[in-house]
Predict the 3D structure of the following.
Amino acid sequence: MTKLTFSILFTLCLFCIHCSDSGTNSDNGNTAPVASFTITPDSGSTTTLFEFDASGCSDTEDELSSLSVRWDWESDDTWDTEYSSVKQITYKFNAQGYYTVRLEVKDSGNLTHTATRQISVTEDTNTVTDTDGNVYKVVKIGDQYWMAENLSVTHYRNGDAIGTTNPADLDITSQTSPTYQWSYYGDEENVNIYGRLYTGHAVLDSRNICPEGWHIPSYEELNILVVAALDSKVGVNPLKEMGTVHWEDPNTGATYSVGFDALPAGIRNANGVFDALRLFTGIWSTTEYELDTTELWNIGLHYNTSDIYGNHYSKSDALSVRCIKD
């Protein structure tokens, strides 16, 4: 009796070891698929659209088209996509870091296999994206990083809309704290080139009009920019875009550029009058004028002089905005 029991147990142990080694389904002999994928490029920044390709997955019994895949972008045990027969997908990471991407492939018998690959994502210092998805070039001047284009966002950082008026030339002088933005004279075609004009009240709004990690400069930060751009030179204005495509002739002093490329977006006065497109630009700061706190400091650039002026305008007027990195 003892010999028979030992013989049966020995046979069962051999059977179990065989099942584990083969990786087959004990019911139908199905083998698990093999997960494999590539990433293009293999590293990038927060603006890189990565391509993930699972066409390298395979299975002994099933064709590639019969296999389904799903993805976990951060390997946090939460699948970010549903199963799909599509083997190619793109994804953009919104923060810098070192990511482990996980792929799971499933065959027609519901057997699965996973594979992981690591990818390095750096912060992009060449562009920045606002709440609306508008992408801006970035330039380093001295030790500061600046938007190299005028802001054109229509929503605060929290998603709330930045107001405007209808008509565009509505007189708002009687309003206490108007937080508005406009395209020049209400013409949206001007936005692509000159961005939008924002009241000083919108600039100061705690919901923030600059992207995450960026802010409206103080007047001190604007002065640091001017000093770094001029680099002790006189008779020049390296902050302005060169040429007369956008600036009116003669665009005095714009003989070389540091990449800031200020554009003559003009001004919208609180009384509703738009003025000085192609002739002037004012760039807001968050610093109040010491003698009248209803006004904010800004720097002004003109088409017919190389001088860079320190101005203070009513918070109900509207000027251009250039954000600076935190």
User: Anything to note?
Assistant: The longest helix spans residues 2-22. The chain has two domains: 22-122, 127-325.
